[in-house]
Design goal:
alpha/beta
C-alpha cells in the first residue's frame, strides 16, 4: 500500500504541488528518497528517523521508499521533512491516510521532533488554497501563512502535536494571521533644511510612484531626503501586503511572526553584484528589485554601480517584472518599485561649485554621469538638482510641511488613483498608465497641450519622455484635486523633466 502526503516546491513566487508517496515493502532494511532531491532533502531521512525515535516510534525492518512526484521537478530545501514524516506515519497506520491527503505540509524537523520555521509558508498557503487543501506548518510560520484566509492553517510546535491533533487526542486551534507593528518613524521631512524643490519632487514621486533622481554635491542632503521617503508613503493595501510578503517569505525575511504593512525600502550598496540586484544564484532567489516590490529601491552613488547592473534595470523599470533565466530554471518575479537614485555631479563631487571644482570642468561631469546611459536616464520621471546648503542655514528653525502633512496629501492622491484604476488589474497608480488609458485619464486642455507640444519640439523629448511628462502632470493634478490636467501642471512636470544631467 502506498500512502500519500503533499508539499510544495518553489519556482519563483509560484509554489508547485508535490505528492510525497511512501511505500513500506519487504526487503533489506533501507530508507531512500527519490524524485530529484537535493542534499537537504536527501538528509531528511535521518532527521525523520531520529525524530520518530524520540517519540518512541520504531521503524520496521523493511524497505522504506519515498518518492517525490513529479520526479523531474527539482526538490530543494529542508521543508520536505514534515511531509515525508506525515507520509511515513500514514504508511505505518499511525495517521489516517485520508487526513494526510487533504493537507499540504512543510516544515523542518529537529532531532527531538521540534518543528523549525521554514521559508515560503505564505506561497505554500496560497497553493494549498488553490487545491482546496489545508496547510500544516511549524508554529513560527503560522501567523504568516494564516493571512491566506481561504484555507485552514494548523501551526504545530512538534511532530507529537501533529500526531495528537490528527488522531483527535488534542486538537490544535487554527492559526491566526499576525501583523508586525510598524516601527515608530523617527525621521521627519521637516528635519531637512531648505531644499523645497527636492521635497516637492519627493511628494510627487510618492503620490504617483514615479522614478526620481537627485544630483547634487556631497553633503547637500540627497540621502537624507531619500531616507525620509518612507515617512510619507501610505501603508500597503492588504493585496499589496500579500504580494510583497510572498517574495519576502521566499527570501526568509518574514521572521517576526507575521507580515508588515510598511512599504519596503531597499538600499543596496554600489558594490552589490548583478545577482544581488536582479536576482539569481543557485536557487534563482529574488534580488533587490523584487524585494522592493510595491516599495522603494534607493540606489545611492548611482554612477558607481557597475554598468552591466545599471543596464539590467531598464527592462524591470518598464515591465514591472524580471525574468531570471538560468540553465536549470526560468523564474519570473514581480518588481513594481519606485527607483530613487542619487549621484554627485562629477567624480570629485563639486562640479557646480566654482571655488572647489576641479580643472577638468566640464569634462569631469560628462565622463562621470556618462556612465548612466541615455536610455536609462530617459526612464526617470523627475530629475532634481540638489544645491548645497550653507552651514549658516543649519541654525535656522525647521520649516516646511511635516511628514504627517505631506503623507496626508499623498494618501489622498493615492486614493483618487485607486478609484480611477479599480477596474484595471495591471494599473494601480499613474506611473502604470499607458496607451489609450493614459490619453483618457490625462488629456491636457488646449493651453496645456500647446505648451507640451512646444516643449517637446524645443527640447527634443523622446516618445517615452513625452508620456512620462503627462503621467507626472496627472499626479500633480491629483495632488491639487483637479480633474483636468492644466497648463501649470504640465509646466511643473516639464521643469522636473529638464533638470539634472541629461535632457530627453
Amino acid at each position: 500500500m502506498v500512502s500519500r502526503a503533499y508539499s510544495v516546491a518553489f519556482q519563483g513566487v509560484e509554489a508547485r504541488m508535490v505528492e510525497v508517496q511512501c511505500a513500506v515493502t519487504a526487503g533489506l532494511p533501507a530508507f531512500s528518497i527519490v524524485g530529484l532531491p537535493d542534499k537537504a532533502v536527501s538528509e531528511a531521512r535521518d532527521r525523520v528517523r531520529t525524530a520518530l525515535n524520540s517519540m518512541a516510534i520504531a521503524l520496521p525492518s523493511k524497505r522504506i521508499t519515498v518518492n517525490l512526484s513529479p520526479a523531474d521537478l527539482p526538490k530543494e530545501g529542508s521543508h520536505f521533512d514534515l511531509p515525508v514524516a506525515m507520509a511515513l506515519l500514514a504508511a505505518l497506520d499511525i495517521l489516517p491516510d485520508d487526513v494526510t491527503q487533504n493537507i499540504v505540509a512543510l516544515g523542518e524537523l529537529s532531532l527531538d521532533g521540534t518543528l523549525v520555521p521554514v521559508v515560503g509558508a505564505l506561497p505554500a498557503a496560497m497553493a494549498a488554497a488553490e487545491h482546496n487543501r489545508g496547510l500544516l506548518c511549524p508554529a513560527g510560520s503560522g501567523a504568516e501563512a494564516a493571512w491566506v484566509g481561504t484555507t485552514q492553517v494548523i501551526a504545530a510546535a512538534t511532530l507529537g502535536d501533529v500526531v495528537r491533533h490528527y488522531t483527535g487526542q488534542n486538537p490544535l486551534p487554527p492559526a491566526e494571521p499576525g501583523e508586525v507593528p510598524d516601527a515608530p518613524q523617527g525621521r521627519d521631512l521637516r528635519d531637512v533644511k531648505g531644499q523645497e524643490r527636492a521635497k516637492r519632487a519627493l511628494e510627487i514621486a510618492a503620490a504617483g510612484r514615479h522614478h526620481l533622481m537627485f544630483v547634487g554635491t556631497p553633503g547637500s542632503g540627497k540621502s537624507m531626503l531619500a531616507a525620509r521617503l518612507p515617512s510619507i508613503l501610505p501603508p500597503l493595501t492588504p493585496a499589496e501586503a500579500l504580494e510583497t510578503s510572498m517574495i519576502h517569505s521566499l527570501a526568509g525575511l518574514l521572521d517576526e511572526g507575521g507580515i508588515s504593512r510598511a512599504r519596503p525600502f531597499r538600499e543596496p550598496h554600489h558594490t552589490a553584484s548583478m545577482a544581488a540586484i536582479i536576482g539569481g544564484g543557485r536557487q534563482a532567489k529574488p534580488g533587490e528589485v523584487s524585494l522592493a516590490h510595491n516599495g522603494v529601491l534607493f540606489m545611492d552613488e548611482f554612477p558607481e554601480f557597475p554598468r552591466t547592473v545599471l543596464e539590467t534595470l531598464r527592462q524591470p523599470i518598464e515591465t514591472g517584472e524580471v525574468m531570471i533565466a538560468r540553465a536549470n530554471a526560468h523564474v519570473k518575479y514581480p518588481c513594481r518599485f519606485m527607483l530613487v537614485a542619487a549621484a554627485n555631479p562629477c567624480k570629485c563631487g563639486y562640479l557646480s561649485d566654482p571655488d572647489r571644482a576641479c580643472a577638468r570642468v566640464p569634462h569631469c561631469g560628462e565622463d562621470y554621469l556618462g556612465r548612466i546611459s541615455g536610455p536609462l536616464m530617459d526612464r526617470f520621471d523627475l530629475r532634481v538638482d540638489v544645491p548645497p546648503v550653507a552651514f549658516t542655514d543649519l541654525d535656522l528653525p525647521a520649516g516646511g510641511d511635516s511628514s504627517v502633512e505631506v503623507a496626508a496629501r499623498v494618501a489622498h492622491a493615492r486614493s483618487v488613483q485607486a478609484t480611477r484604476y479599480k477596474d484595471m488589474d495591471a494599473m494601480r497608480v499613474n506611473a502604470d498608465a499607458e496607451g489609450d488609458q493614459l490619453e483618457k485619464i490625462a488629456t491636457p486642455d488646449s493651453e496645456a497641450r500647446a505648451l507640451l507640444v512646444k516643449a517637446a519640439e524645443r527640447f527634443n523629448l523622446s516618445a517615452r519622455g513625452y508620456h512620462r511628462v503627462i503621467r507626472v502632470a496627472r499626479t500633480i493634478a491629483d495632488l491639487e484635486g483637479s480633474d483636468t490636467v492644466r497648463k501649470p501642471h504640465i509646466a511643473e512636470a516639464i521643469s522636473f523633466r529638464l533638470a539634472g544631467p541629461a535632457v530627453s
